[in-house]
Structures are given as structure tokens and as C-alpha cells.
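Researcher: Let's do a round of design. I'm pasting the C-alpha cells now; please hold your answer until I've finished.
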């Protein structure tokens, strides 16, 4: 399995300038190559190969108009061409039905919120003995290591986000992970908005609603930005404040997803979740709340952590009638409006909580042996609740921090 590790970078002034040159040169090479292929297509000429584009980049360094391309590592420019090839390949595969459709490659702008360059082993980058990241024609950049790398990575991608933060991203091969000790629990998860997740054992996890809670501050920063004159330095500073406010919301949401997914994987041998149509729900009046919940990212974390640590992960179909079937007798009672949170089965008379009942049905649809008794909410029939118990595959690992799950 390959995993991505990201670490915060803290470049100094000259290093930030060198990275800005690298971002700009990579963007220019990408746009020049895209323009070359688009012109050839418009004239009815054959598709320009990557080798011809690479030769054009080398020749451009000897011209007065593009002489400054020699100020950055040649590997950065070649990797920018590889990114263009990947964009074209994804576009053509979408037309052939091999993957979801996506648009044709587009020109990059210096105002894009994300800038990135990639260094391969040919660039001879390295991690120094002092823990810095040594990059060609940039220098030794200070890194905050939060964990150790599982193996020696062959490439590193330096990313600058909209908030002005720098990150070093490594993709490493983790090899065969030691599975976690076997657990007895088997859980079904029903994702929602009023509660972020409802488990088949009756546990309800409140929705943090990070975006909703930060709306007041986001509104103030956005209002300050709108009052600044376009093109001024103060507008650039205000834009950075807006980006940082949004970054804090995204970081808090990601941390919540990681903590919850890790807890569920550790405590349960099998996890089942419903495949939701997030794109469809994001086009409704609940769009902001749907995006704030981040269901897709959470389910992705569950899936890869289950594969990594020897747990079973089940994803049931989105058309499974989990909210229409009684978890006690299995009778389908038909669809119900969203305002009905508790309903009584017409066949067996059991009073059911809508969310818990759906979570139990999710577990049953995945073939998990989960008791459905907790789905009952009628007084006198509810059983007593239990208390809650407390890269290169052959490379040597690079010890740069403490290990973490």
C-alpha cells in the first residue's frame, strides 16, 4: 500500500523566493507545452509527443525570452511536463469510459490557490542529518516532522496552499502492516447531518459543524476583503486572512475525521457504511451542511485504514432501503419524510429510531451479525445500556519523528 505523508515546511526569505521561481517556471513550462499541443490540434497536426516537448524546453533555456528557466532544477520542469501528460491521459480515459469524465487540460494561473513542484531522485534531494529537507537550488528547508516515514521515498512534492503555508508531501510504500489485535465488535454506520454518525449499537456522534461555527468569523474576514481596493497590498493581506480562516476549518474537520475513523477501526473487526450520493445531495438546499460534514473524506479514511490494519470494510449500495425496513421483523414499510425521526412498524408494532434502525440495517446488509435490539425506543422494551469500555519497498526507514497511526 502507498500512503501520502505531509509535513509542514518553514522556508526562510531567500528560500521562499527560490520556491516562487520554481512554481513560476513549472507553470510557464506547463502552459507553453499545453499551447503547443493546442496549436497543433487546431492546425490538424499530429499530437506532439512528450519527447518533442522536452527538447523544446531544453532549447528554450538558450533563448533570451526563457533564459531564466535555467535558474531552477531541470527535474522540476520535466515533472511539469509529466503532469500535463497525466492530465491528457485522464481526459482521454474519461472519454473512453475508463474513469469518470473530466475536462480537458486548462492553463495554469499565477493566482491559483495551490502551487506545487515535484523533485524526483534524479534531483538528488535528501533529508539531512539535522532533519532538514535539502532541495536543489533552494537550500536546506526546515521541516516539522510529526512521524517517521515507513520507507525511503523516491520523490517529494513541495506544496504552497492558499493560506501561504508550505508542505512537503511524500508518497511511500508501507509494505505489509502488522494488523491490529482482533476485536469483537462489528458496527454499521449511518451518516447524517443532525448527527454526523449513528452506530448500530445505539451510539450517536454529534456533528461538529465546523463551518457553521466559524461562519461569523468567516463573514467578518470576507467583508473586510470586499472593502479593500482591487490590486492593492491590503487586499492581498485580507485575502490571506480569508484563506487562513478557511484552512483552520478544513484542518479541524480533517482532524475530527481522523480521530473518529481511527477509533472505529481500532474497536471493531468489521465496519459497514452506506454509499451516499454526495454530488446529488450537494445540489440541494442542504449543500452547505453536506459539504461541512465531509462524508466522502471520512469514508475514504475508514476504507484505507481498514485495509492497512487488517479490518473488514463493507460499502453497501446507496439504493438499499435502510430507512424503510424494520430492523426487527424485516418488513418494508415504505419511504418516510425526513421530519419523521421515530416510527412504529405496522407489522410487529416496534417503535424504532430512524437513524439507529438505518445503522442496524446497514450492518445487516453487509452481512454483519449486529444485534438490532438497540434500535427500539419504546419505553419498557429498551434493554439496559452497557457502559462504554473504557517509494522504495526495500529501502530502510528514515527515522525522523515518532510513529503515529
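Researcher: That's everything. Go ahead.
Model: Designed sequence:
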Amino acid at each position: 500500500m502507498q500512503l501520502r505523508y505531509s509535513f509542514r515546511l518553514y522556508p526562510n526569505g531567500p528560500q521562499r523566493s527560490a520556491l516562487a521561481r520554481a512554481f513560476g517556471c513549472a507553470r510557464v513550462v506547463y502552459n507553453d507545452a499545453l499551447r503547443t499541443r493546442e496549436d497543433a490540434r487546431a492546425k490538424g497536426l499530429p499530437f506532439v509527443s512528450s519527447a518533442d516537448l522536452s527538447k523544446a524546453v531544453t532549447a528554450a533555456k538558450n533563448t533570451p525570452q526563457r533564459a531564466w528557466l535555467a535558474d531552477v532544477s531541470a527535474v522540476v520542469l520535466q515533472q511539469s511536463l509529466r503532469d500535463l501528460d497525466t492530465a491528457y491521459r485522464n481526459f482521454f480515459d474519461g472519454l473512453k469510459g475508463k474513469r469518470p469524465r473530466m475536462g480537458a487540460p486548462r492553463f495554469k494561473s499565477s493566482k491559483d490557490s495551490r502551487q506545487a513542484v515535484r523533485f524526483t531522485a534524479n534531483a538528488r534531494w535528501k533529508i539531512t542529518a539535522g532533519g532538514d529537507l535539502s532541495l536543489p537550488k533552494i537550500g536546506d528547508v526546515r521541516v516539522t516532522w510529526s512521524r517517521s516515514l515507513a520507507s525511503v521515498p523516491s520523490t517529494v512534492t513541495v506544496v504552497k496552499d492558499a493560506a501561504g503555508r508550505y508542505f512537503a508531501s511524500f508518497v511511500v510504500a508501507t509494505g505489509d502492516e502488522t494488523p491490529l489485535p482482533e476485536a469483537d465488535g462489528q458496527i454499521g454506520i449511518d451518516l447524517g447531518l443532525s448527527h454526523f454518525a449513528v452506530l448500530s449499537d445505539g451510539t450517536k456522534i454529534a456533528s461538529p459543524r465546523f463551518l457553521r461555527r466559524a461562519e461569523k468569523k468567516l463573514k467578518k474576514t470576507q467583508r473586510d476583503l470586499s472593502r479593500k481596493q482591487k490590486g492593492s497590498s491590503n487586499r492581498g493581506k485580507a485575502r490571506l486572512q480569508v484563506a487562513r480562516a478557511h484552512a483552520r476549518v478544513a484542518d479541524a474537520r480533517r482532524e475530527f475525521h481522523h480521530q473518529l475513523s481511527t477509533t472505529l477501526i481500532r474497536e471493531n473487526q468489521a465496519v459497514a457504511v452506506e454509499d451516499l450520493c454526495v454530488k446529488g445531495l450537494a445540489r440541494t438546499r442542504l449543500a452547505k451542511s453536506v459539504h461541512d460534514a465531509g462524508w466522502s473524506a471520512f469514508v475514504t479514511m475508514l476504507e484505507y485504514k481498514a485495509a492497512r490494519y487488517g479490518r473488514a470494510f463493507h460499502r453497501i449500495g446507496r439504493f438499499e432501503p435502510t430507512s424503510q425496513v424494520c430492523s426487527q421483523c424485516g418488513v418494508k414499510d415504505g419511504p418516510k419524510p425526513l421530519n419523521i425521526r421515530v416510527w412504529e412498524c405496522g407489522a410487529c408494532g416496534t417503535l424504532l429510531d430512524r437513524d439507529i434502525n438505518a445503522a442496524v440495517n446497514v450492518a445487516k446488509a453487509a452481512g454483519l451479525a449486529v444485534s438490532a435490539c438497540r434500535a427500539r425506543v419504546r419505553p419498557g422494551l429498551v434493554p439496559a445500556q452497557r457502559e462504554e469500555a473504557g517509494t522504495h519497498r526495500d529501502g530502510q526507514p528514515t527515522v525522523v519523528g515518532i510513529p503515529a497511526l
